[in-house]
Amino acid sequence: MPPPPELIEDVTAEILLRLPPDEPEHLVRASLVCKPWLRVISDPGFLRRYRAFHGMPPLLGLLHRLLHCNGCPDRRLAPTTAAPFFPYPNCEYSESEALDCRHGRVLLYVRSEEKGWSFLVWDPVTGDRQQVPDVCISSVIYTAAVICAVSGCDHLDCHGGPFRVVFLASDNKDVLIKASVYSSETGAWSVPVCLAESSGETFVQPRRAALIGDDIYFVLRLDNAIIKYDSGKNCLSVINPPKMRSCYITLMVMEDSSLGFACIRSSSLYLWSRKVNSSGAAEWVQCRVIELDGMVPIANPDDKQRVAGFAEGVGIIFMSTGVGLFMIKLNSGRVRKVGEPGFYFSVLPYMSFYTPGSTTLIVQL
């Protein structure tokens, strides 16, 4: 019997284009089937189409942060897929704390015996590392965000290229909230700016920030007041949160690119969105309530459900209970356990496309 006819490359590409990006090993294994398939999958044009077809980068792994009084979590990037990462930068640092994951990068605050404290921007897919000097703000409580600095970037393939680090802290010396920005293009930190208005609270929460356009949103401890850093105007301002008291909240980016706020009360997940009303003023609108009883498992009747984070673009909320860490897909209600029992204050989702162009996959497979 003669061998079956080969698929036309255009048809092959259309089939391979539909392999799910959240299981990247499928695409890599397909590239090993034969040389024509490898040629299709390795083509830069196909990879651009693949990223554009699937839109937002998939969730590949998780880190998380704790309150300072609770110490530091394990120093590891926990994969949520079979994709292998470059090793977590542990060996050369006596202390290390994950601060943010965004645009294909992980931001770490690290300490070496020789050089003291500094920041490290690490790409787990390519293994690239870039050292960032420490910021000149005296602080114990702080948070930060790492963002791509390429103008007009769609953030579908943010490996390499310039970046910025936005650092927000409660200054120990003058009890003010300050922000400073590092640019990889200039290799320097900006002059710190202070919050002009009094918020009644000067302690920053070590939660993951929300990025919308040129604005980055952080949270303070008292009443979950929100700090907005406007990178275009280089200034800080305060936004009052929804009138719902909760110790565990997360900021979100909603589907319409508005600022979102999530919290839990009485076994219900409340989602709020900051909308502009007919008068042109921004106000919080409750957009959804999700009953969690029977949806997310708990260890016992006294166990509490806590919001721990959000993955933008893929509609995933992270929650923890005495049973473990769970992610909920808001569009389908699907619940998946992604971590063992423990205290999760702020989950940092690592999201990136992992294609055969990544050296790690080529070497390991």
What does this structure look like?
By secondary structure, this protein is mainly beta. It folds into two domains: 9-50; 55-364, TolB, C-terminal domain (Neuraminidase, 6 Propeller). The protein is 11% helix and 40% strand. It contains five helices and 24 strands. The strands form six sheets. Strands 7, 8, 9, 10 and 11 form a five-stranded antiparallel sheet that branches. Strands 3-4-5-6 form a four-stranded antiparallel sheet, with no helix packed on it. A four-stranded antiparallel sheet has the order 12-13-14-15, with no helix packed on it. Strand 21 and strand 22 (324-329) form a beta hairpin. Residues 359-365 have low confidence and may be disordered.
**Order of helices and strands, N to C?**
HHHHEEEEEEEEEEEEEEEEEEEEEEEEH
SS-derived structural category: mainly beta
Proportion in β-strands: 35-45%
Low-confidence stretches: 359-365
**Assembly state:** single chain
User: Biggest β-sheet, characterized?
Assistant: 5 strands, antiparallel
Whole-number count of domains: 2
CATH architecture of the largest domain: 6 Propeller
Count of distinct strands: 24
Please name the fourth-level CATH homologous superfamily of the largest domain.
Answer: TolB, C-terminal domain
Radius of gyration: 22 Å
Percentage of residues in helical conformation: 10-25%
Task: Report the top-level CATH class of the largest domain.
Answer: Mainly Beta
Number of helices: 5
Shape: globular
What average pLDDT do the residues reach? Answer: 86
Pfam family, one: Beta-prop_AT5G49610-like
Domain F-box: 9-48
Keywords: Membrane, Transmembrane, Transmembrane helix
Transmembrane segments: 307-328
